[in-house]
Design brief:
This protein is an alpha/beta fold and 353 residues long. Strands 1-20-21-19-12-11-13 form a seven-stranded mixed beta sheet. Strands 2-10-14-15-18 form a five-stranded antiparallel beta sheet, with no helix packed on it. A five-stranded mixed beta sheet has the order 4-9-8-7-6, with helices on both faces.
Length: 353
């Protein structure tokens, strides 16, 4: 890196030739050591119905059977070809949705053939069957599904709208998760995870940020979810949600004290801040050209380390770090711009010699 001292070197130096392009700054990757949250690779029909049935408008038709069946894939299947008898490639691990086209085809068949085709579908051990558009389901089909232990639901949604909404819900259910020991806050749209050893002052920093008008996402324990394997979303465990533990004060309800605007249910993770004791901190880049990233669930997030010492306003430093990250996300990188101006100044000074 070119430093300010180079700009004041002796004029007896030979003229500068064109410098090669600056190499990209090295990126230091810091791996997360958070505890993996053990999660089943499948979601049961009963769990899906309890979590998303109301939002999707699903109503159980018939008895409660097949709720222990597992949904094997986070997407939906329309069994049009299967109902016609083609099972060479059939996604039997997915929720099956029967829309107007499939139901019209079934009703066009003779009653015996319709029952046979529907029975073949249920025999493939599908998780469950959903009829869209609030369709009138023939009684014979309901009897077949009940006898074979397949749950049948009905929704007023149009088929494609149900497929889109259910797929998003399943993507969340199937997303890998990780528990990180740290507090998370929302600072002007930037989700910041604050890490550090026990007693370093994480909760006090979060309180200071909440007093400045920012929002708490999670305190001390943050649940991180890799949504669609492209972005990380943090939230608090249901038991500790909206609460903080402050040494000397005990548990406090943040929403009751600071108002409803001081909390958020979830937030995308944009920055990780690690608090370290000043004496334990190694040499830190004073300019900021060396970039650090924190890796969680194979997704890299920008990372900064802030030394903690008596008299330092850590909450203010975290606020500035979040605002700086917001500028960088908009394409404004102060260290790189400063470095480029310094190199241009060196060129102009040596060309005048």
């Amino acid at each position: 890196m070119k430093t300010a001292e180079l700009a004041t070197e002796s004029p007896s130096l030979p003229p500068l030739v064109a410098l090669p392009p600056e190499p990209p700054p090295a990126v230091q990757v810091i791996a997360s050591n958070g505890q993996e949250h053990i999660k089943q690779p499948h979601v049961s029909v009963g769990q899906f119905y309890a979590d998303h049935g109301e939002a999707l408008g699903c109503k159980l038709v018939g008895p409660e059977v097949g709720f222990d069946r597992r949904i094997g894939e986070p997407t939906i299947n329309r069994p049009g070809l299967a109902l016609s008898g083609f099972y060479e490639y059939f996604a039997h691990r997915r929720i099956q949705v029967i829309g107007s086209a499939e139901l019209t085809y079934l009703k066009s068949l003779p009653p015996a053939r319709m029952a046979e085709r529907f029975q073949e579908l249920c025999a493939r051990k599908v998780p469950c069957i959903v009829f869209s558009r609030q369709a009138a389901i023939p009684k014979a089909l309901l009897e077949i599904a009940e006898s074979m232990g397949v749950a049948v639901f009905r929704t007023p949604l149009v088929t494609m709208k149900f497929i889109n909404a259910a797929t998003i819900a399943l993507e969340v259910d199937f997303s890998p998760t990780k528990i990180e020991h740290g507090s998370m806050v929302d600072i002007l749209g930037i989700g910041v995870l604050i890490r550090g050893e026990s007693g370093i002052g994480k909760s006090e920093c979060v309180l200071g940020l909440i007093e400045r008008g920012y929002s708490l996402v999670a305190d001390d324990v943050t649940r991180i979810c890799a949504f669609e394997h492209r972005e990380l979303v943090g939230t608090a465990p249901p038991v500790t949600r909206y609460h903080m533990e402050v040494r000397g004060l005990g548990l406090i309800n943040v929403a009751s004290i600071f108002g409803i605007g001081s909390i958020r249910l979830e937030k995308r993770l944009d920055l990780v801040v690690t608090l370290k004791d000043w004496h334990d901190t190694e040499e830190i880049d004073r300019v900021g050209l060396e970039r650090e990233v924190y890796q969680i669930l194979n997704i890299q997030v920008p990372h900064v380390t802030i030394p903690v010492a008596p008299g330092r306003d850590i909450a203010r430093l975290i606020e500035v770090a979040a605002l700086d990250q917001k500028l960088k996300s908009l394409g404004c990188n102060c260290p790189q711009e400063f470095n480029q101006r310094l190199i241009e100044l060196m060129h102009r000074k040596h060309h005048r010699l």
